[in-house]
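Board notes (copied after class):
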Amino acid sequence: MKPDDSQLIAYADGELSAREAAPVERALAQSADLRESVALLQASRLPYREAFAAQKLPPLPDELRRRIESMAQAAGQQASSDFAPQEQRSARRIWLAAAFVAGAFCAGLIQHLGGWPGAWGERAVSTAAVQTRPWISVAVDYQRMYTRETVAHVVPDGAAAARTVDAIRKVDGIHLRMPDLQAAGLSFRTVERLRYNGKPLVQMVYLPEHGMPVALCVMKDSRPDESIAQREMDGMKVVSWRQNELSYALIGKPDSADLPAIAREISNGNVDDMFSALATDRPAVG
């Protein structure tokens, strides 16, 4: 029997018993599509409620708040009467995602950027922008939604992240080197596949020993190479450059890390590739 979405979510979250997990694992062994679904779920685990609560976002309109509360109450009543435990977990996850997306929508982000922290079920969600903004400006707004608490307790899943990077290379066509920044004091947390104006956008999130998370964002860009430049945008430091038909933006709070120095190390190829074994179709670029 093919596992349903609630079973896959519970399995990805490590909430199934050994008995419950056994049939899921048998199905995974027989289906590459199911394995990819689980990999995406595992790669997108972020604490929605903590992330949403920590943001300084405009208040929800009363009508939208009432609708969300009504949906949550109905889901809770249904879960209490009809849902099996794993389905209750699925309902909770859907509610947390809905709350997070509602907040992001009010902040104007979902108008521009497809996908969000913890998005599941689709590789990315495409939404129409009211007006086009530079992708780095949108990425800065997206990164501002992360706090240290958002990612501090996320345990990286190397195997799931490697599969996500493989999809970035093979499906999205971004021949990515995912840099190991441990030497610079940044530990890897998660990698996300997003879309901006219908084009793939990659976000890699790292956590310094102290301070706020740092993101390395990458998009395809056929324009000529451009040297490293830095600026501040909405209280965030942005270090950007173009190289080998890829555009990069390293984004973080000014005191998170020495971002220009890290950008130079990445650009010069002086950092290890965390998943170099996957880069078999073309030499990796810095």
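Comment from the instructor: The domain at 136-278 is CATH 3.30.200.100 (Phosphorylase Kinase; domain 1). Residues 130 and 187 are 36 Å apart (CA to CA).
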